[in-house]
């Protein structure tokens, strides 16, 4: 969408074709921009989600376009959109994501040979990730190869890994390992309605917009709040989605590298046969569960570090850089009884979550994973730090594409 729009801007540079498609001023109308952007978006979405083509064609029709439009003039907005989309698609088909199944037969499947050390029933190494048995199926590490995907602005997925404090090891730093587990137990045992709501609101699990999409929704709020033009929106969403994209690569590279245990594994290992306090009462440590829905007790990939934290930190930092301020001013009202973990009971009455700043929202997103028993404190704090670094580097590159000279 950005590359299609860039053809109609006096300064912007397309990511794949540079300024080669730049149109004369007389053609740089809102109508042409919208048409080129729409056809570019439709082509890319259809490539990613081919079974949804009819939906995308329907949207084009609703916007007043003919999905089968095949203009002869190369400079027609339809051709501009399709041309840049083809260039981006060709580039990303071979970026290490394995979208086409050329690196391993099943699209997006792992080609690195990852195998977990632990099994659902046996903790061989308490420092390593343990797949769980959920709904009769053993979890599989989702895209362990993602750290190898070609980033937007990062030099590689591991660029900032040496900035992270390595996670606590039961073998080498048992005291720290036990303390981080104790912290999660303490939080889980004293969850208020507000903290439970925070844990669930930010969860963004399966069949939701997911954590990256959550920050796109926040960007939509900012667009409406600040009365954005089309030009400004194109830049905003280009900047924030590329920053979060790089955050995903940095996060998954670390997850694969450390292959670190989730709190549920550490607590089961440390407290088996011991009674511990939990959000649902006193339980045997071997049966402790995070504050999550039973069908998704903990995500199917290693802990270190928190994806929510890095996505949110990079999103918040980008919104700060774009708007020139940390001010957010957004809120959401969660109705009583809304909980999926404790439906009809939590919260006992409506709860309002309000974020005065982007940073405050990002911090709450990180804390939500501690309240939910999904991450350790270090997994949260370290990835908040990396998220900000990733965002600043992505922002510097985005400014160059915008045509901003420093």
From TrEMBL:
Domain annotation DUF6851: ranges: 1-131
Superkingdom field: Bacteria
Stored Gene3D superfamilies: 1.10.606.20
Protein name (record): Uncharacterized protein
CDD domains noted in UniProt: PAP2_haloperoxidase
Stretches assigned to the Vanadium-dependent haloperoxidase NapH1-like second helical-bundle domain: 236-378
């Amino acid at each position: 969408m950005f590359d299609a729009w860039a053809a109609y801007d006096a300064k912007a540079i397309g990511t794949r074709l540079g300024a080669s498609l730049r149109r004369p001023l007389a053609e740089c109308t809102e109508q042409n921009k919208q048409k080129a952007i729409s056809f570019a978006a439709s082509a890319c979405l259809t490539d990613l989600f081919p079974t949804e083509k009819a939906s995308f064609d329907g949207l084009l029709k609703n916007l007043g376009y003919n999905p089968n439009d095949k203009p002869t003039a190369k400079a027609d907005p339809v051709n501009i959109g399709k041309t840049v989309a083809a260039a981006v698609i060709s580039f990303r088909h071979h970026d290490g994501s394995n979208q086409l199944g050329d690196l391993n037969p099943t699209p997006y499947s792992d080609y690195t040979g990852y195998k977990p050390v632990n099994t659902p029933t046996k903790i061989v190494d308490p420092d390593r990730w343990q797949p769980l048995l959920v709904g009769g199926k053993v979890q599989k590490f989702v895209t362990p190869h993602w750290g190898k995907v070609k980033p937007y602005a990062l030099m590689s997925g591991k660029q900032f890994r040496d900035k992270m404090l390595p996670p606590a090891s039961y073998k080498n730093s048992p005291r720290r390992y036990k303390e981080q587990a104790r912290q999660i137990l303490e939080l889980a045992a004293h969850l208020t309605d507000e903290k439970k709501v925070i844990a669930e609101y930010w969860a963004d699990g399966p069949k939701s917009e997911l954590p990256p999409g959550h920050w796109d929704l926040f960007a939509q709020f900012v667009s409406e709040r600040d009365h954005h033009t089309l030009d400004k929106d194109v830049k905003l969403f280009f900047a924030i989605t590329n920053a979060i994209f790089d955050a995903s690569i940095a996060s998954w590279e670390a997850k694969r590298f450390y292959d670190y245990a989730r709190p549920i594994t550490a607590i089961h290992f440390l407290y088996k046969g011991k009674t511990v306090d939990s959000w649902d009462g006193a339980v045997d440590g071997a049966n402790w569960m995070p504050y999550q829905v039973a069908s998704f007790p903990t995500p199917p990939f290693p802990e270190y570090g928190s994806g929510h934290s890095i996505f949110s930190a990079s999103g918040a930092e980008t919104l700060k850089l774009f708007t020139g301020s940390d001010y957010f001013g957004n809120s959401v009202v969660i109705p009583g009884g809304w909980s999926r973990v404790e439906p009809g009971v939590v919260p006992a009455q409506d709860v309002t979550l309000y974020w005065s700043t982007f940073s405050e929202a990002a911090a709450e997103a990180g804390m939500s994973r501690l309240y939910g028993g999904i991450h350790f404190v270090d997994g949260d704090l370290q990835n908040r730090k990396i998220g900000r670094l990733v965002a600043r580097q992505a922002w510097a590159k985005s400014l160059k594409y915008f045509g901003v000279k420093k």
